[in-house]
Amino acid sequence: MAHKKEALKEGCYGDEVREHILEFAENGGYEAIPEDEREKWFTRFKFWGLFHQRSGQESYFMMRLTNASGILEPDQLRTIGEVARDYATGPVENPEFGNGWIDLTTRQSVQLHWLELEDVPEIWKKLESAGVHSRSAGGDTMRNISGCPLHGKAEEFVESGPLLERFEEELRKDDALSNMPRKFNISASGCTVGCAQDSINDIGFEPATKEVDGETVKGFNVRIGGGLGGRQPRAATPLDVFVRPENAYEVGRGFVELYHDYGNRQNRSKNRARFFAEDWGMEKIRETLQEEYVDFEMLRAGEDYREEYTYNAGRPVEDGQHDHVGVGDQKDGQNYVGLSVPVGRLPAEDAIELADYADEYGSGEVRLTRRQNPVIVDVADEDLEALLAEPLLEEYPAEPSPFERGAMACTGTEFCSIALTETKGRMARMLRWFNKNVDLPDDVGKIKMHYSGCTADCGQAMTADIGLQGMRARKNGEMVEAFDIGVGGGVGEEPSFIEWVQQRVPADEAPGAIRNLLQAYAAHRSEGQTFRQWVEATGTEQLVEFCEPEETNFEAPYMADAKQSWYPFAESESAAAAVGEESAAPSDD
């Protein structure tokens, strides 16, 4: 029997959902949706990037935008910032971030919160006039296409821009493929840095070469079935297929169609593409692709460049690029400048000012990364000094601290109904505390610390040096917010996922545990050893001892059962609170 979500989608999904959203908006907004039909319509709304916020925030919506591989063309960031300023304001201010801001996501896109349904037509009008849209930004569909945010600007082994654009224009806009069994993530890398993180996508294209008829041909190797959620992470498996650039789209489309046609629509906790790939196996998938979906003869995999991958690979800074923060060279002789936005939250006025900088010092284009950061491109040598001296870059520096540089955080209980803990405000406070209370060796340029509010792992804790996942624990007889703490994750040539070293640590004791661990790293590491390398060389038992929870002077608000004080919540527990300890919370990141 099909899952109930399939029944909710039946009869209306994909492009036609838009007309219903507009109709509800024009006839009273939230109140126009019949109460007994809200679950159905909220499920359908997600296709157009519109998510009803959690219980206690009735009538407010989040909108996720979509922009393939993080490219915001001139004026698009400014328009998004203006929409956030004018429409994305809640009933009260967030005590850490104020009111009216945008969230940068781990799939190179943007989220807006506190929107009211009756404002959506005008919001769409403003955004779409600048070429920004929200179609296929949520729900059971192909999500934002990930790629190297600097494709076309930085050096690439094989050009990825045309493939990324074709996925966006022809595949994601095909309404016949809008209703997938579950969300589906696509990525393509043309560089040898590995910054699209293809190993954690449902299908990823990686640069490779292949000897064909005595000629060395450039193209892509294909991997499928990567993902992180539910404490069941999978690194994407080689499909043993090499494709020339001109054939890559057909293979990508073929696997999307195969999963659309044969994917599990009964069990939503087991119907992501990574489980499908595991169940079918590479040989059967490859054979079915060849027989039913691909018109040319597929070649077996070529030589890849994974041994050169440095992006979040746990390698020393001198080995190469591990993120897109800082000043870097473009292939045309100009520069890009990547800024650090801790936890990805950018006030609307700052987003508008950043767009002004992009116009003044660059081409106006801004690129977004998979680490929740913006990059200004096309900056001439003679303009670099002036840009780096701008006051806003003191807040979002191109040379941040190791903690700020490595930080990511998901939405958390602030808006997400399945989260168990507050995330962004707490992480921002922890970063300031670590800056003041933890000394690292001078050659340690980054500590990748990722925070997810639940096991869905939208904050990618599984791929961090130090991964935090929200939990609950009892302390002094009361239920409080807590973390599970893991270490040693990362992608690169051989992706590894964190090993848990402490579980259910009360939130006021977790910073002390992390400080103790980092002090042990500083004291016991070999010269030049990165955190991931040190973890691999240190036994689990010793790591557990190093990561000893401890109360400190860290101020830990929002300890009591995930109910913050600055905006209303329903009295009942969050949906995730009722999920069994070993169960995966449902994910719709």
UniProtKB/TrEMBL annotation:
Gene Ontology MF, one: metal ion binding
Keyword Metal-binding assigned: yes
PROSITE patterns noted in UniProt: NIR_SIR
Keyword line: 4Fe-4S, Heme, Iron, Iron-sulfur, Metal-binding, Oxidoreductase
Top-level lineage group: Archaea
Nitrite/Sulfite reductase ferredoxin-like domain: residues covered: 57-129, 329-391
Keyword Mitochondrion found: no
Similarity annotation: Belongs to the nitrite and sulfite reductase 4Fe-4S domain family.
Protein name per its UniProtKB record: Ferredoxin--nitrite reductase
Organism, scientific name: Natrinema zhouii
Source organism phylogeny: Archaea, Methanobacteriati, Methanobacteriota, Stenosarchaea group, Halobacteria
